[in-house]
Design a protein that fits this description.
Helices cover 40% and strands 21% of the residues. With 587 residues, the chain is an alpha+beta fold. It binds adenosine-5'-triphosphate.
Length: 587
């Protein structure tokens, strides 16, 4: 397959913001590909060569890419850099200059997708002495053989700015449309949720159809999208929703880890699929030592504990384990305990389709418990009184609340989905009107007075998982301390965007735009209808979005969440309606 065909599909995607149109462009394109090319095309549409859980590092900063562009377009570097300062994106610079270069007749063989993938893989793997020069030259060779549009996307891929707006859900829509019926869509999504590998799903459906897709199972080594909990505003409401009886567990405030235990190794993944094994080597070793099975996938919450008393410590303490350096000391200084709550696989058996009680029994039987590895505290409760009593016990033990879990036969592990099989209830809900929000930073406003010369406020957005777009929900200027504000420009630097990113919907214009990447936890007094914010626009009222009143940063940067794991438009609307009910029908 020619790389130019892929680049031209990207170009058509880039020109539209309609998800329906993107789906139809992609499905038509996907149908024309062989399964192998399809897998690579799907990865590249996400700017990657691998599944989601592989950290993609080409190791090419903008200025290195500009050097390759200068060579390929035969322009002085200074001229290229000047254009980059104006345009902001090396991809656009490459497109403009290579257009001006005219047709190269030197190469008779057109550039294939296979060659592009090979060279990008080689760029990714080039390390050591002179690696920067070597990477630059390999990119130059590709650019020399590419036209303007092809060059644009090559530069966007290697600089990590491949944003054609087609997120994972759009790719799944397109794959279903191309190779299955509409009814097959949930199975396609399930296959993705249990593998986190869009390329694998694409190749499987293209070569084996829906039967092959239904045969995709969880496996040790490829992380599974985590199951998430809904929220309700009181224990009696939870008990009612659960049919009067459910399992309740302490809700621990730590870091969620998914452990993939194999015969002689263990890998630990965060909920955003980062490999955190090197941050918790003690947990990994203990899990292997305590697991009676040869292979297993389990989930638990890793919490910092006081070494002398064993008491649980606040969330901030365990975040010391997320450092990049000095891990040996952090392991010693910040002891942790893993509270396991689920098992997704054990010795050849996919447990995700088994009911909660069966999973819990299996989990309990699969481990010798130790000081470092335990099970979450759990009780089967009946009625609101027992529920309230368990909640009080959870708070006394310094948990942040409870997790209610359905005891029904259908209470399977729903990878990647949020539903009422699990319902969370935190002590914060008693004081605040709603749960906290996890919001993406999409813009900043310059400060005034005491904050002159710094960012004074941030423009925050939610994520709409249906459309794959971000929409603004508040301007956030409260809750920051001086150290945070001083650090902010550096934290946001690599996410700067020259203009409004194409996947952000906003009516407000900040002084600076950012690509959605950094997630902050925010609390607010109320969710109200908003004429300026675009969140859940038209959902509650035609011509109005939803906004947060009196938003305040809690001090918690959600580095364990990616922007696509922010509070969603559907959740926001639900919370809006829930708050109305709480205030009574007349309010
Ligand atoms: P969400 O996970 O719902 O997006 P969040 O990450 O902001 O939200 P919370 O709302 O605080 O987290 O609650 C869910 C999280 O609680 C889980 O993802 C998990 O990390 C943690 N957790 C703690 N104890 C348990 C438990 N017993 N069972 C399941 N999850 C638990």
């Amino acid at each position: 397959m020619l790389y130019s065909e892929l680049a031209s599909a990207f170009e058509r995607l880039d020109a539209t913001s309609s998800r329906l149109e993107m789906t139809s462009i992609l499905s038509e394109f996907f149908r024309s590909l062989d399964p192998g090319s399809l897998r690579d095309a799907v990865y590249l549409s996400q700017g990657k060569l691998h599944p989601d859980y592989f950290p993609q590092e080409f190791g090419m900063a903008d200025k290195l890419v500009l050097r390759a562009v200068a060579m390929a377009s035969a322009k002085p570097y200074e001229e290229v850099e000047k254009l980059w300062i104006k345009e902001g994106d090396p991809g656009t610079v490459a497109e403009l200059l290579i257009k001006g270069r005219g047709q190269m007749t030197l190469f008779s063989e057109p550039l294939t997708l296979e060659r592009v993938v090979n060279v990008l893989t080689s760029i990714e793997n080039t390390e050591g002495k002179d690696s920067q020069d070597k990477k630059m030259k390999q990119l130059f060779l590709l650019l020399r053989e590419s036209g303007p549009v092809e060059s644009k996307y090559l530069c966007r891929i290697v600089t990590g700015r491949m944003r054609v707006g087609a997120g994972a859900m759009t790719i799944l829509d397109a794959l279903s449309e191309a190779f299955a019926t509409r009814e097959g869509r949930p199975d396609v999504e399930r296959a993705y949720n249990v593998t986190c590998d869009l390329g694998l799903v694409a190749k499987t459906i293209a070569s084996g159809g829906m039967d092959a897709i239904r045969g995709v199972h969880v496996s040790v080594g490829s992380p599974i999208k985590v199951m998430l909990a809904e929220r309700l505003s009181s224990i009696p409401l939870i008990m009612e929703r659960m049919g009067g009886r459910c399992a309740m567990e302490f809700k621990y405030d730590g870091i969620r880890l998914q452990a993939h235990i194999s015969k002689d190794s263990v890998r630990l993944y965060s909920r955003r699929l980062e490999d955190l094994t090197s941050n918790f080597p003690d947990v990994a070793a203990e899990l292997r030592a305590c697991c009676k099975a040869e292979e297993a996938i389990i989930e638990g919450e890793c919490v910092a504990v006081d070494p002398s008393t064993g008491a649980m410590l606040p969330f901030q303490t365990v975040t010391h384990r997320r450092k990049k350096h000095g891990m040996d000391k952090a392991v010693e200084d910040y002891p942790v305990r893993m509270f396991m709550f689920d098992i997704l696989f054990i010795d050849g058996t996919d447990m995700t389709s088994r009911p909660f009680t069966e999973r819990r029994d299996k989990l309990a039987g699969a481990f010798e418990l130790s000081e470092k590895i335990g099970l979450t505290e759990m009780e089967v409760v009946e009625g609101p009184e027992e529920g309230e009593a368990f909640f009080a016990r959870a708070l006394a033990a310094k948990s942040e609340g409870v997790m209610a879990k359905s005891l029904h036969q259908e209470s399977v592990y729903r990878a990647g989905s949020r539903g009422f099989l699990w319902i969370k209830y935190k002590k914060d809900y008693e004081a605040a009107l709603t749960d906290s929000f996890d919001l993406a930073v999409v813009g900043a406003f310059y400060g005034m007075g005491k904050r002159a010369g710094k960012y004074g406020a941030l423009l925050m957005a939610i994520f709409d998982s249906d459309t794959g777009r971000y929409s603004t929900v508040c301007k956030l200027g409260t809750g920051f301390d001086d150290a945070f504000l001083d650090n902010l420009p550096e934290m946001m630097e690599s996410h700067l965007s020259k203009g409004r990113p194409s996947d952000v919907d906003a009516q407000m214009t900040p002084d600076i735009w950012f690509f959605p990447a950094v997630v902050l936890e925010v609390v607010a007094a109320e969710i109200s209808l908003s004429p300026i914010h675009t969140a859940a626009f038209g959902v509650v009222k035609e011509d109005a979005g939803l906004g947060l009143r009196f938003p305040r940063f809690t001090g918690r940067v959600r580095s364990d969440k990616g922007p696509e794991q922010c509070t969603t438009a559907a959740e926001l609307a639900e919370m809006y309606w829930a708050q109305d009910t709480a205030d009574g029908p007349d309010s």
